[in-house]
């Protein structure tokens, strides 16, 4: 009898055997896999298995896309309220504090000698607040961006400006006329370099804020498209089963279809509600904030020009013209734009905001009347009386002047600050309402999709069981 070879042999079915004689597992090639797949699809149970897998995949993709896109929208809404909107506001505040510092420095200079403590404290506060907001903006800026370049310029120029102001003060305390030249040079540096850089920074941050609004308002087309495809697939399968079995309803597939419809409606309605709140926030509160910020800046510029006109002692025609231009932008408008305070009043959406703006308009009218009286004194040679009408103090007769342009300016400035604070609250409230419209949708959408997928498996599984 011949000996059996100890090497690997072949089984009767063509498979290979190992040393122990057991058949090894055969790994199908790509062609074999395709042949087996085709064989499976030639039977109705095999087709139903594939149909079930495809429907489950469609439903799960629909739920995942809802969760992903809605989460993105919520993150963008949060970014509007916690990042881009505060940064845009901070950029406007940088401009406002710089302009306020410039106007306050001129007021302190007019007082002569040792400036009042309240004036010095206000100047120091404005410089400190501008510096703090620059630090905050720098920490949130993108390296190499336009915003970072403007922040770098502001951080470099601000110490030069404050140094010039301190030199002007030192000369003024000694009664040296050179102090006025230093102050005018400091103000020119502020207006030629710092304020334009602050304005460009505000433009950059405002553009970023608008992009965030656009992203948050974008319709979740992917989520809705996947939902429509999943619903279409479910309806097609139910029609196919009806034509083959004459059964009108398959409970599992009907439940899955209902779940997908709920998902589509929840996503659509939630986004439409959130979008409406965002549009109200953008069109009303954000736009109103922009107009109010422009009004604040115009008032500060006008105040600075008013003071510098007196500092120049007879050669301040350019500052007086600038004052008139800023006041015109506030009260009478220009050829290209409506008066800022009128526009702010139109955009105010509650009684408190409207009252604040109306009081600012009253203060502005009073300011213009007092400025006219101060200019008449200065043009008539009564310089000390003109200064008293602008910053307060005693006139030439020793009478205390309290009804000053500075008091009117403070009224305008304070009422505009109040209106800005109210609009900020409105903006945050609208953004919170937008976020609330998405409450529960990311998690709820995933849960509905999972339940719908389970209903598909059960519904198709019942049909497959009939073939056993």
TrEMBL record:
Region of interest (Disordered), residue spans: 1-25
Comp. bias (Low complexity): 1-14
Keywords: Membrane, Transmembrane, Transmembrane helix
Regions that span the bilayer: 48-68, 218-237, 249-269
Origin: domain of life: Bacteria
Name assigned to this protein: Secreted protein
């Amino acid at each position: 009898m011949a000996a059996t070879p100890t090497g690997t042999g072949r089984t009767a079915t063509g498979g290979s055997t190992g040393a122990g004689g057991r058949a090894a597992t055969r790994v199908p090639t790509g062609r074999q896999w395709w042949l087996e797949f085709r064989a499976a699809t030639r039977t109705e149970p095999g087709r139903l298995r594939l149909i079930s897998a495809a429907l489950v995949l469609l439903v799960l993709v629909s739920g995942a896309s809802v969760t992903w896109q809605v989460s993105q929208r919520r993150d963008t809404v949060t970014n509007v309220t916690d990042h881009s909107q505060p940064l845009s506001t901070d950029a406007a505040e940088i401009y406002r504090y710089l302009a306020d510092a410039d106007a306050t420095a001129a007021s302190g200079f007019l007082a002569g000698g040792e400036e009042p403590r309240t004036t010095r404290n206000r100047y120091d506060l404005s410089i400190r607040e501008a510096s703090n907001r620059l630090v905050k903006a720098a920490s949130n800026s993108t390296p190499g961006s336009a915003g970072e370049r403007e922040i770098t310029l502001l951080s470099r120029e601000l110490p030069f400006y404050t140094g010039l102001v301190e030199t002007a003060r030192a000369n003024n305390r000694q009664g040296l006329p050179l102090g006025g030249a230093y102050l005018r040079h400091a103000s020119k540096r502020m207006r030629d370099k710092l304020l334009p850089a602050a304005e460009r920074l505000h433009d950059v941050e405002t553009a970023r804020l608008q992009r965030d609004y656009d992203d948050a308002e974008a319709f979740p087309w992917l989520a809705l498209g996947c939902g429509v495809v999943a619903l279409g697939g479910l309806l097609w399968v139910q029609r196919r089963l009806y034509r083959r079995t004459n059964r009108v309803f398959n409970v599992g597939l009907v439940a899955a279809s209902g779940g997908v419809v709920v998902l589509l409606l929840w996503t659509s309605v939630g986004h439409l509600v959130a979008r409406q709140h965002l549009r109200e926030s953008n069109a009303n509160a954000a736009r109103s904030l922009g107009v109010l910020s422009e009004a604040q800046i115009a008032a500060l510029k006008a105040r600075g020009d008013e003071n510098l006109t007196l500092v120049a002692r007879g050669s301040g025609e350019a500052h007086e013209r600038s004052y008139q231009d800023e006041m015109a932008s506030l009260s009478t408008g220009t050829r290209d734009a409506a008066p800022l305070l009128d526009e702010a009043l139109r955009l105010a959406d509650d009684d408190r905001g409207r009252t604040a703006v109306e009081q600012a308009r009253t203060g502005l009218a009073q300011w213009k009347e007092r400025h006219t009286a101060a200019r008449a004194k200065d043009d008539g040679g009564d310089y000390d009386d003109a200064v008293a009408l602008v910053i307060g103090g005693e006139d030439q007769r020793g009478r205390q002047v309290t009804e000053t342009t500075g008091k009117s300016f403070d009224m305008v400035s304070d009422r505009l600050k109040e209106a800005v604070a109210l609009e900020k609250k409105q903006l945050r409230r609208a953004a919170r309402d937008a976020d609330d419209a998405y409450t529960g949708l990311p998690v709820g959408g995933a849960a509905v999709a999972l339940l719908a997928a389970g209903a598909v498996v059960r519904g198709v599984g019942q049909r497959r069981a009939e073939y056993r």
